[in-house]
Specification:
By secondary structure, the chain is an alpha/beta fold. The chain has two domains: 154 residues, Quinone Oxidoreductase, Chain A, domain 1; 150 residues, 3-Layer(aba) Sandwich (Rossmann fold), CATH 3.40.50. Helices cover 24% and strands 28% of the residues. It has nine helices and 15 strands. Strands 3, 4, 5, 6, 7, 14 and 15 form a seven-stranded mixed β-sheet that branches. The protein has a six-stranded parallel β-sheet with strand order 10-9-8-11-12-13, sandwiched between helices. Helix 6 links the parallel strand 11 and strand 12. Helix 2 packs across helix 3 and helix 2 packs across helix 8. The longest helix has 14 residues. The two termini are 19 Å apart. 44% of the residues are buried.
Length: 334
């Protein structure tokens, strides 16, 4: 019998998530049954979509259950197996508990072949966030040479890749991020043409007019709220918006009003599309081939914030909701 340290949802938040929404527990895991595997987790991904799952509101994923472990994308090692699909020592990726060990039936998990990339990369630049950026850019924003593309949360796990893909397509790329250091990295390393610090700029419309004088042709939207409202007003005819997330609104207790003059959608023949990348898993192979080649050729860069220790996951998640991470946020468990 193995003991596991796990983090459970102790209560549902009202407004901002607080530390008392989480509770640590040490539990004894039962012996494996037929078809089960025991995974020792190495890295846990922390992502904004987890915030809506803490409530009982209807969403595209079921809410976390009270007094049960939260779950998230993880990579780990199979340490015991009674499942013919997996052997001891296999590296796997999939949805696992916020825990040191997870007992699992293997459904939804896949093996990771050894390679030069660290395991944590499979949760970021080779995983769901990068796949999200790739799908949104390739299939919704569809940037062209000479167009202007805006990316909010430009140095987040998704935004850092989205901006580089738009730049590789020949577009002018402008973004925003929550710090001067992040904006400097976006321009210096990720190839953005410009990036502004949304924490220090008081008038988003004015800064967008300055940085995007020809208007905006495509918006990869991660933030929502006032930043999106300013972008919406500056979209060109036939502009495209890929709605990936709205992290600025996740902790609002009352819904924020939408942009003014919604008839703009008709006047400018805009396309606004929300998407969930799990709907497009059939394209995963195409994504891996393209992005893998870009990484190998040094044409794609990424940043990662690694927090050491499962017990620090709740505080790290609170920081994520405030934009404190730089690039992909992962927790190193073992």
């Amino acid at each position: 019998m193995t003991e596991a340290l796990q983090i459970v949802l102790a209560k549902r938040p009202t407004g901002d998530v607080t530390p008392d929404c989480f509770r640590q527990e040490t539990v004894a895991l039962p012996a494996l049954g037929d078809g089960q595997i025991l995974v020792k987790q190495r890295f846990l991904s922390l992502d904004p979509y987890m915030r809506p799952r803490m409530t009982e509101l209807r969403s595209y994923t079921p809410p976390f259950e009270l007094d049960k472990p939260l779950t998230g994308g993880s990579v780990g090692e199979v340490v015991e197996s009674k499942n013919p699909r997996f052997a001891k020592g296999d590296a796997v990726i999939g949805m696992l508990n916020w825990a040191t060990h997870t007992l699992h039936d293997g459904k939804g998990l896949r093996k990771i072949e050894p390679g030069p990339a660290p395991l944590s990369a499979h949760l970021g630049v080779l995983g769901m966030p990068s796949f999200t950026a790739w799908y949104g850019m390739r299939h919704i924003c569809k940037p062209k040479a000479g167009e202007t593309v805006f990316v909010s949360a430009a140095t987040g796990a998704v935004g850092q890749v989205a901006g580089q893909l738009a730049k590789l397509a020949g577009a002018k790329v402008v973004g925003c991020a929550g710090g001067d250091d992040k904006c400097s990295w976006a321009v210096r390393e990720a190839g953005y043409d410009a990036c502004f610090n949304h924490r220090s700029e008081g008038d988003y419309g004015a800064v967008l007019d300055k940085l995007c004088p020809q208007g905006i042709d495509a918006d990869f939207e991660n933030v929502g709220g006032k930043i999106f409202h300013a972008v919406f007003a500056r979209l060109n005819n036939f502009g495209r918006v890929a709605f990936c997330g709205a992290i600025s609104e996740y902790q609002d207790q009352a819904p924020m009003a939408g942009p003014t003059k919604m008839f703009t959608i008709v006047q400018r023949r805009l396309t606004l599309q929300g998407f969930i990348v799990s709907d497009h898993v059939a394209l995963m192979g195409e994504f891996v081939n393209e992005v893998g080649a870009l990484l190998k050729d040094g044409k794609l860069k990424s940043r990662e914030t690694v927090v050491d220790g499962l017990t620090r996951a709740p505080d790290a998640f609170l920081g994520l909701l405030k934009g404190e991470n730089f690039g992909k946020l992962v927790v190193k468990i073992a």
